[in-house]
């Protein structure tokens, strides 16, 4: 009998020792991977519950995979206390290891009742894998690739890719069916598929016009907009067949999306790092900015969440002549976010890629370009949330992760105090002032509005009045933070 009691007591005693040992280890800087340690040091446990809001997604958490189950669970718990999700990574090039790690993370998240979030980016590359069969073919039968997207990117003929679809589908389905077989949930999957597949910008059109196959499939290839339409239709088709459909066929409620694909007004207000302007690209002009005409591809992809990209791209600063340097950044970035917010069905979540530090695309920073101020960036994030953005995904290089994490988390954590409005409210405006003026954003429930006013260098001392569904909202000067005001 005595030995039986000892056996009963032995298990909880060992568990207690293990927990105390783990707790002591967690107090040291070495227990967590460096990227996770940085996240934890620059965030605090939440004061408000998430209340159905999406978790905060942070790029540094991609480095949070460890082999010890207990430590992995501790990482996931610590992140969750801050409203941050651990993100597993699918990589078909290391499929056995990647799958084992991902299943382990998902099982822990399932046990804790947390969303299962996955980075599927590596599985989306590459349709154009260098195979000669994917090349363009000129009228004399010579094969060639479009070199205008940089070294290492052999962009070929969009109509040569059908033989690649089965292999590309398997790169995703390998993981999805394994999750299903294990009875694990799959809540959110995102990708960063960019320089691959059918693309119409840079010098792509010129290459296509020299390709006999492209000329056969694009009947009006001499018209750029016709060419753009066909390229985007093909791009949407292959990403739907090989990415979103394999996921949604087994997990119909999953959120599936990809970097920079979102509903919009027919224009794109930013340029990616691998893109450049050619004078035949249809566009509209705003000061020194050229906003390209963009095809409506989102609805054709099967994606279930929108993912606009809201970054301070280096050249953006040089496009505008606003006196306040912060407003040069703020104006463009809010245009991008408002474009998505205004044109996305409220039932479709918007998870925006965000970043604060200036993104220098060619390694050559102009000394006249001034870094966006921290206050202005925080205000931008608030206005995005009040204009329909549901979630934030912070991207950054490792050297910037401490500051980027701290700022994004401060806004996210504070916003949870307004979850009732963010979950139920309707945006009152998407207007972006074309001069340095007070910026107003808000969410309406009945006859009350959670509103935020941001003034720049020429702060106005006057109230601002806007009309909301035939009623008047008066926003006084010197408001700080979010305030609730009545509609009159």
User: How many domains is the backbone divided into?
Assistant: 1
Helix content: 25-40%
For the largest beta-sheet, the strand count, sense and barrel status come to: 4 strands, parallel
Oligomer: single chain
Strand order, sheet with most strands: 1-13-12-11
Using the 3D structure, state the CATH architecture.
Answer: Alpha-Beta Barrel
β-strand number: 19
Straight-line distance between termini? 78 Å
Briefly note the CATH topology name.
TIM Barrel
CATH class assignment? Alpha Beta
Radius of gyration: 25 Å
How would you characterize the overall build of this protein?
This protein is of the alpha/beta class. It has one domain (32-427): TIM Barrel (Alpha-Beta Barrel), CATH 3.20.20. 36% of the residues lie in helices and 15% in strands. The chain is built from 14 helices and 19 strands. Strands 1-13-12-11 form a four-stranded parallel sheet, covered by helices on one side. Helix 12 (374-385) links the parallel strand 12 (351-354) and strand 13 (391-394). Helix 2 packs across helix 13, helix 3 (69-81) crosses helix 4 and helix 11 packs parallel to helix 12 (374-385). The longest helix is centred in the N-terminal third of the chain and has 25 residues, at 2-26.
